[in-house]
């Protein structure tokens, strides 16, 4: 996946992740999961 964000946002995100010992991809995956839980249509079987 490729996304476009400003250099400033990228630097801030990178620094915040590094301070917590996390990889940016880990945090992005977690944020996507949270967003999907809130926005994904329920699956009807």
From TrEMBL:
Pfam families: ParG. Signal peptide: none annotated. GO terms for biological process: regulation of DNA-templated transcription. This is ParG. It comes from Fischerella thermalis JSC-11.
């Amino acid at each position: 996946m490729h996304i476009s964000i400003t250099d400033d946002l990228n630097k801030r995100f990178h620094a915040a992740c590094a301070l917590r010992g996390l990889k940016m991809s880990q945090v992005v995956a977690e944020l996507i999961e949270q967003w999907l839980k809130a926005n994904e249509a329920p699956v009807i079987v």
